[in-house]
């Protein structure tokens, strides 16, 4: 009995020692992990969280450089609520977002479906269609400015030769100016979406289509019942990225319309830039930035919520 008791005590002591060694090794692993993460966390804190905190600070002050900030409480927020130009810029941004996102997703999916077929030169087209997304916004906008400029644009030079004597001043008309911005945005968006959609299409198992063919499904049924549900997560990703990119658009607006005519193409970020750097109302620009961020967050959340329901 005594030997059994000693053996049990020895086993308990051994297990406790092993547990202590495991905890010590676990702490070492955690320490190593945190040491590796520290540089990235410091960069994130310095260049993300600190600027956000500073923007919050600026939103409660009247700031006109190089003067010192003057605390005004919620004065900037009260001004924002009554700023009709800001709300119009938000409306323009929503129109641009819905238009460019819809066209960009549709065109990207259509081209990806075509590229998913086997044909010669497929690799060349994969690279060729991706080029607009890696081209500078300014360069892309300049290309379309040379096309649609009412004085020097190539389109208004060619249209009279085919019978249209008085072509429209594209970028001076509110409807056509917004349409051209949406077209440019969707053109760039489609270029970004094509390789993503193509990767998703190539990942759909062929057995799904073969089973559907056995059941008598045609091409349209296979597309709606197999392809679309299979690439839904990728579609949601492209939609979210399109929304984020649309709220960041400013370069193509600068080059093509500068927010005109009559603020009809003035988007939110362009208005923030005007107030902050052109008119030197830095505190008010910070307030608008803070309002746009949660609005963008809500839009993204709704998009994800709707995609889960449809899935």
Automatic annotation (TrEMBL):
<dbReference type="InterPro" id="IPR000515">
    <property type="entry name" value="MetI-like"/>
</dbReference>
<dbReference type="GO" id="GO:0005886">
    <property type="term" value="C:plasma membrane"/>
</dbReference>
<dbReference type="InterPro" id="IPR035906">
    <property type="entry name" value="MetI-like_sf"/>
</dbReference>
<feature type="transmembrane region" description="Helical">
    <location>
        <begin position="94"/>
        <end position="115"/>
    </location>
</feature>
<comment type="similarity">
    <text>Belongs to the binding-protein-dependent transport system permease family.</text>
</comment>
<feature type="transmembrane region" description="Helical">
    <location>
        <begin position="30"/>
        <end position="57"/>
    </location>
</feature>
<feature type="transmembrane region" description="Helical">
    <location>
        <begin position="168"/>
        <end position="187"/>
    </location>
</feature>
<feature type="domain" description="ABC transmembrane type-1">
    <location>
        <begin position="90"/>
        <end position="303"/>
    </location>
</feature>
<dbReference type="Pfam" id="PF00528">
    <property type="entry name" value="BPD_transp_1"/>
</dbReference>
<dbReference type="GO" id="GO:0055085">
    <property type="term" value="P:transmembrane transport"/>
</dbReference>
<keyword id="KW-0813">Transport</keyword>
<keyword id="KW-0812">Transmembrane</keyword>
<keyword id="KW-0472">Membrane</keyword>
<dbReference type="InterPro" id="IPR051393">
    <property type="entry name" value="ABC_transporter_permease"/>
</dbReference>
<keyword id="KW-1133">Transmembrane helix</keyword>
<protein>
    <submittedName>
        <fullName>Sugar ABC transporter permease</fullName>
    </submittedName>
</protein>
<feature type="transmembrane region" description="Helical">
    <location>
        <begin position="281"/>
        <end position="304"/>
    </location>
</feature>
<feature type="transmembrane region" description="Helical">
    <location>
        <begin position="127"/>
        <end position="148"/>
    </location>
</feature>
<feature type="transmembrane region" description="Helical">
    <location>
        <begin position="231"/>
        <end position="253"/>
    </location>
</feature>
<keyword id="KW-1003">Cell membrane</keyword>
């Amino acid at each position: 009995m005594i030997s059994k008791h000693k053996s049990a005590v020895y086993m308990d002591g051994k297990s406790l020692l092993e547990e202590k060694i495991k905890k010590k090794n676990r702490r070492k692993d955690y320490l190593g992990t945190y040491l590796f993460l520290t540089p990235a966390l410091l960069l994130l804190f310095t260049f993300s969280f600190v600027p956000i905190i500073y923007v919050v600070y600026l939103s409660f002050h009247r700031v006109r450089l190089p003067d010192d900030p003057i605390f005004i409480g919620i004065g900037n927020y009260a001004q924002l609520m009554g700023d009709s130009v800001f709300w119009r810029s938000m409306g323009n941004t929503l129109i641009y977002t819905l238009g460019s996102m819809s066209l960009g997703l549709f065109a990207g999916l259509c081209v990806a479906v075509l590229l998913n077929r086997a044909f010669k030169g497929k690799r060349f087209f994969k690279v060729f269609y991706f080029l607009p997304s890696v081209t500078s916004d300014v360069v892309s906008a300049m290309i379309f400015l040379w096309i649609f400029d009412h004085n020097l644009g190539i389109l208004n030079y060619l249209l009279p030769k085919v019978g249209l004597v008085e072509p429209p001043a594209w970028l001076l008309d509110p409807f056509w100016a917004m349409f051209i911005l949406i077209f440019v945005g969707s053109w760039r968006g489609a270029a970004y979406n094509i390789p993503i959609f193509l990767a998703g299409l190539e990942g759909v198992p062929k057995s799904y289509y073969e089973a559907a063919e056995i059941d008598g499904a045609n091409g349209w049924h296979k597309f709606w019942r197999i392809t679309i549900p299979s690439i839904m997560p990728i579609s949601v990703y492209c939609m979210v990225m399109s929304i984020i990119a649309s709220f960041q658009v400013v370069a193509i607006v600068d080059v093509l319309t500068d927010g005109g005519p009559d603020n009809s193409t003035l988007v939110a970020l362009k208005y923030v830039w005007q107030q902050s750097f052109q008119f030197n109302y830095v505190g008010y620009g910070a307030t608008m930035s803070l309002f746009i961020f949660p609005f963008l967050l809500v839009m993204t959340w709704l998009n994800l919520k709707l995609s889960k329901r449809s899935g």
